[in-house]
Amino acid sequence: MGGIGKHRDGASILSFVADPDVRLRVLLADDQVVAARGAAEYLAALGIDVCGTVTDPRRLVRAYQQHLPDVVMIEITMGGRGTAFAEVLGLLGGHPDAAVLVFTSDLSPTTVAASVEHGCLGVVPKTCSVDALGNAVRTVAARERFMHPRAITAMLQTRQASEQRRSLRPLSARELSVLGLAAEGFTNAEIGEQLGIGAETVKTHLTHVQEKLHARDRTHAVSRALRLGVLT
């Protein structure tokens, strides 16, 4: 099957191709039934068996213990935000050698970063090619990291945003309040009414915000704040 790495720290981003003749067993965890069936068919065509399926993340650990798969392939958004991540932590806490591959429709920088932080060895989008899916499963089964190019891009965006945030002057609590209301579309006068300050004071706060965020205008300031995670 190839060399087996033991790291889960996210420092290594590799694409490792294992022996394609080895028949692997995958536990498929996905509450999107149609997508799960399609994935199972693709895996079967690649000579990879789906030994079990889970549609509720709370059954993940029990299913793993029952089937002992080579790879857990999971839609990390299943069960609502954070639920699947909590179950993955529980799984890895009891079975640290479990190999988890995220197969998801949400390839946002936040999801990709959280997947790595929670110990998942690979991330691939549901729009990936069949060959990429097979490569991902075999790589993760060998306990090596597989990051789809789009996932790598998302990780780089997260890192870049973090670096840019550190280079910015921090916004005050009042500036954050003003910017948050501006993001909701309120005018200066309306923001002033809600915060108990004058429209000119609001304008001054927005000017300071634009300077700190290196933004051209209030719209650009809101856009940059959202992209950099200053506003959530």
Notes on the structure:
- The chain is α/β, with parallel strands linked by helices and 232 residues long.
- The protein has two domains: 25-159, Rossmann fold, CATH 3.40.50.2300; 168-228, Arc Repressor Mutant, subunit A.
- It is 51% helix and 11% strand.
- The protein contains ten helices and six strands; from the N terminus they run βαβαβαβαβαβααααα.
- The chain has helices at 33-45, 60-67, 83-94, 109-117, 130-141, 149-167, 173-183, 188-195, 199-213, 218-228; strands at residues 25-29, 49-54, 71-74, 100-104, 122-125, 146-147.
- Strands 2-1-3-4-5-6 form a six-stranded parallel β-sheet, with helices on both faces.
- The longest helix is centred in the C-terminal third of the chain and has 19 residues, at 149-167.
Instruction: Kindly report the CATH topology of the largest domain.
Output: Rossmann fold
Compute the separation of the termini in Å.
43 Å
Order of helices and strands: EHEHEHEHEHEHHHHH
What form results from the Cα inertia axes?
Answer: elongated
How many domains?
Answer: 2
Major pleated sheet: 6 strands, parallel
Just give the CATH class of the largest domain. Answer: Alpha Beta
Strand fraction equals: 5-15%
> Which residue ranges are poorly predicted, with pLDDT under 50 across at least 5 consecutive positions?
1-18
